[in-house]
Amino acid sequence: MKYFRKMSGEKCYLSPISLDDVELYTQWVNDMEIGQFVLFSTTIYDIEKEKEALKKLMAESISFAIVEKNTNKAIGNCSLFGTSEVHRHGQFGIFIGDKSYWSQGIGTEATRLILDYGFNVLNLNNISLEVYAFNKRAIRCYEKVGFKLAGRRRNYLFMAGKYHDVLIYDILAEEFESPYVNKLFERSSNEDAEAKKISWI
C-alpha cells in the first residue's frame, strides 16, 4: 500500500486515507471491542457500506490515515470535522483500529499531529471533542495532549445495560505547542537566512 506523508512524527505519520484499505476498515468497525468506544457496534458494516462511509468521511471532513512509521502500516485514522473558517473552530475524532498498537503512544502522537495541522495550517483557534466517560485510555491521551474538560452530558449514552456520561473537552491554539509545522517553517526560514548571508559574502 502506498501512503503519502503529510504530517510526520517519531512513531507515525498522517497520510490521505486510501480506499484500498476498505477491507481493513471493515474488519475494524465490526470488532465489538473497538466499536464500544465509537458506537460502531450498533451498525453492521459490509465492505460496500464501509466504502461509502469512508467516501463520506473524506468528503465531509479533513481526515488522515494514521500510518505506523517503521512498517508503513495503516493502523487507524483521525479527523477534523465541522470546521468553521469564520469562527475558527472544529471538532476532533480518532480511533486506532489495530489493537496491537493500543497504549503505545501512537494515538497521542497522531492527536498532536492533527491538532498541529488544525491550529497551524487551518488556523483554527478552538478544537473540541466528545468522549464516553468509560473510555479512560482515550481521556488520558487527550489530557496528556492538553485538552481541558469543558462540559458533561449526563446519562447521555445507554450501553451494556446502564447509562453513561459523555464528556466534552476542548483545547485552544494558545495552549498548544506545535510538534511539526512551526519547526518546519523555522528550519526553512533559517536555511533561507543562511543562503542570503552566503550570497552577501
CATH homology superfamily name? Gcn5-related N-acetyltransferase (GNAT)
Query: Which residues sit in consecutive blocks of at least 5 with pLDDT less than 50?
Result: 195-200
What is the β-strand count?
8
CATH class: Alpha Beta
Helical proportion, percent range:
25-40%
Strand order in the largest sheet: 1-2-3-4-5-6-8-7
Helix count equals 6
Overall average pLDDT:
91
Strand content: 25-35%
Using only CA atoms, what is the Rg? 19 Å
- The name of the CATH topology is Aminopeptidase
Could you spell the SSE succession in H and E letters?
EEHHHEEEHEHEEH
Distance between the amino and carboxyl termini: 48 Å
Sheet with the most strands? 8 strands, mixed
**CATH architecture label:** 3-Layer(aba) Sandwich
Q: Helix- and strand-based class?
A: alpha+beta
Give the number of domains. 1
Structure overview:
The protein has an eight-stranded mixed β-sheet, sandwiched between helices. The chain contains six helices and eight strands. The protein has 201 residues and is α+β, with helices and mostly antiparallel strands. The chain has a single domain (7-200), classed as Gcn5-related N-acetyltransferase (GNAT) (Aminopeptidase, 3-Layer(aba) Sandwich).
SSE order and pairing:
Blueprint: E1 7-8, E2 12-16, H1 22-29, H2 32-38, H3 47-60, E3 61-68, E4 73-84, E5 89-96, H4 106-120, E6 126-132, H5 136-145, E7 148-159, E8 162-172, H6 181-200
Parallel strand pairs: 5-6
Antiparallel strand pairs: 1-2, 2-3, 3-4, 4-5, 6-8, 7-8
Helix pairs in contact: 1-3, 4-5
